[in-house]
């Protein structure tokens, strides 16, 4: 997910098509061609530039294996089932509680469902919290669930509403936002976004010439004030195709993660992540010394061939025009997730013909600790100290929510 599903919605209309998840996970191994000797003496360099911490991580550190993932999940929910509560339509967000219970958002337009479902540590249905509606404790189109203050919960839906629930799942109080919610800081304040209205069809020659919406704004929203970050953040490139402004293929959408008292931002082909205080002030830049990955025309042609198979001529013409404008480089990072230890996980983007992708794991100070390899279409929702929670499609094309163990490599697997 550029970013995770809730952030995709928060940055409307910068929406990424839903990933299709395939079954299984992959055991992390040392990348072919790497040699332990290449890691000797490799450390990040850190310097200060006008009060901004610059962390430069050498490329060989990406070869260091940090974890592998358990082959068998600890918890497996969903798939085809006789229990309707265990069948999942769309899961945008999920959290694991202290007692091992899982709280999963569930939204469906047909039939109309918008609720939280709670499952025990063995994956058995426990209860439902909330329902579709506009009243207290109800959701219009639920997008995100957070665990706050122990096992109390906070939810956000597409109507700009926040609902608070106590640890027993009872509705506590509401809150309303006029801007889409991106994430929540530890002090209870929020990061929200601003989407400026631009027409899907250009109305003037100047709009047609401009073509793209190339920036967004982020705001720090607390109980007392809403503070503009004071700077535009780059967005995915757009252009006009057949009279309609569209996101060009392979364009890099923003990836954002909120943690404690900071938020992290990545966009573009460069392997760089900026770190900001809640008010938007930059505090650090994290670099990985990897060159942008060029998109091969032969892969574009193959992907376009698969996409347009059996499509009507008008669809073929529009997509050929759109793909002719594709980005030159793959996005460096497609998703950012902060784990329970405040480490930042950054996924590289999926590339045509590749079934796996690497996640780089950075310590809170920005130093690269190593990488983890997962299936490219595994959607990661939450990472704990020793587990990973995500969604996956099984062989029956049924959605599942699974929890996997994070396993450190054995001593012989670790480069020395």
| Rg calculated over all Cα atoms | 21 Å
- State which percent range the strand residues make up: 35-45%
Query: How is the main sheet built?
Result: 6 strands, mixed
**Count of strand segments:** 30
N-to-C CA distance: 34 Å
Provide the low-confidence segments as ranges.
Answer: 5-35, 196-213
Number of helical elements: 4
Q: What do the pLDDT scores average to?
A: 84
What form results from the Cα inertia axes?
globular
Which class best fits the helix and strand makeup? mainly beta
Task: Kindly state the percentage of residues in helix.
Answer: under 10%
Largest sheet strand order: 1-2-23-22-21-20
Secondary-structure map with pairings?
Blueprint lengths: L4 H6 L34 E5 L2 E6 L10 E2 L5 E4 L15 E3 L5 E7 L4 E7 L5 E5 L12 E7 L3 E6 L3 E5 L5 E6 L4 E4 L5 E5 L10 H6 L4 E7 L4 E3 L4 E2 L3 E4 L2 E4 L7 E5 L2 E5 L5 E5 L5 E7 L8 H11 L5 H11 L9 E6 L5 E5 L7 E7 L5 E8 L3 E5 L3 E7 L5 E9 L9
Parallel strand pairs: 2-23
Antiparallel strand pairs: 1-2, 3-30, 4-30, 5-6, 6-7, 7-8, 9-10, 10-11, 11-12, 13-14, 14-15, 15-16, 15-17, 18-19, 20-21, 21-22, 22-23, 24-25, 25-26, 26-27, 28-29, 29-30
